[in-house]
Amino acid sequence: MSDPARAGGAPDPTPRPATRLVHGGRPDPRAGAPLTEPVTFTSTYVQDGPVSYARFGNPTWTAFEDVLGELEGGSALSFASGMAAVDAVLSLVPQGGTVVAPRGSYNGTVAWLREAEASGRAVVRWVDVADTEAVLAALPGADLLWVESPTNPLLEVADLPALATAARALRVRTAADNTFATPLGARPLADGVDVVVHSATKYLAGHSDVLLGATVTRDDALLQRLHTRRTLGGAVPGPMEAWLALRGVRTLAVRFERACANAAVIAQRLAEHPSVRRSRYPGTGGIISIEVGDPADETGAIAEAVAATTRLWVPSTSLGGVESQIERRRRQPGEPTTTPTSLLRLSVGIEDVEDLWADLAAALEAA
Ligand SMILES: *Cc1c(COP(=O)(O)O)cnc(C)c1O
Q1: Cα(329) to centroid of ligand 1, in Å?
Q2: Looking at the whole model, is its pTM more than 0.85?
Q3: Looking at ligand 1, which atom is closest to the CA of residue 86?
Q4: Domain range spanning residue 228?
Q5: Residue 106 DSSP one-character state
Q6: pLDDT at 13 exceeding the cut of 90
């Protein structure tokens, strides 16, 4: 934090998230210091300092980690991608251990777990994460409960406090992928979750120009183990990537607020649209999923046609950027079959909502 006393007022002991996003992770405000953290390009450091080699640490990573850690309420570590962070956390499961995981998780996480199942690395108990009773029933004897909320792309919402409390009582470690909610929408550590995972590629960096991941935890032993995983796995971010994410996260509050406001308007209109068979929107956030066309059509032809017809909504995978994106999820080869073939995932950007609606409505009409 920069020194609030400089502004003349009494320091606020608990700056709110939008303030922390702007002021966290700044260089010390000594006379002549740069206001923003520079990109530190180096592979090594002169010996006897706090960090000896760039695979162990980098000041540009630290600045981004400080901002995210403050927001989530723990200590963050940045990784080369969201999947590198997912891999680091899942790697903590002991050989032959048991993971309870949502059937509808992000397809990369599902693929990781399926491979672990196939190789005998881990046992997976697949659950519907919105069915709290079912998740609780799957917990006894497990090593890790993985939660994603809302899930990608079915937007199912988990009861995080109930699940975290029950898991803790059973000594089951909990991890939450908070990519969709962002720390502005949910703070899983405060709900009792042990470790949060982010694809910072999405809302945190927010401009569809960088891959980055992160973990956040309050547990020092866990932090140490994750740091070791990062160092030995070598999935470290480039300094430029960390800097782009740092620059992007400064505006998270305004971007996310606009994306959510746009999404709420569009979700309401989609829910009433005659061409939309089903729309899913958890009432908050910037992602909407809709189903269009014949559910029995394996090719999802109508959904494909809609995504091909929009002009502003970019047909592309990924989400959370300033640009609105549209994708028929089952195009992705690894997408779980729990995702309907006719499902389109909409990542609502920060453009003018009426322009977005006109474009989407025209494409729905045409298809
Ligand atoms: C994209 C995504 C990931 C993976 O992140 P990458 O940065 O693409 O490696 C993990 N979880 C969720 C929910 C995602 O949307």
Answers
A1: 14
A2: yes
A3: 10
A4: 18-249
A5: -
A6: no
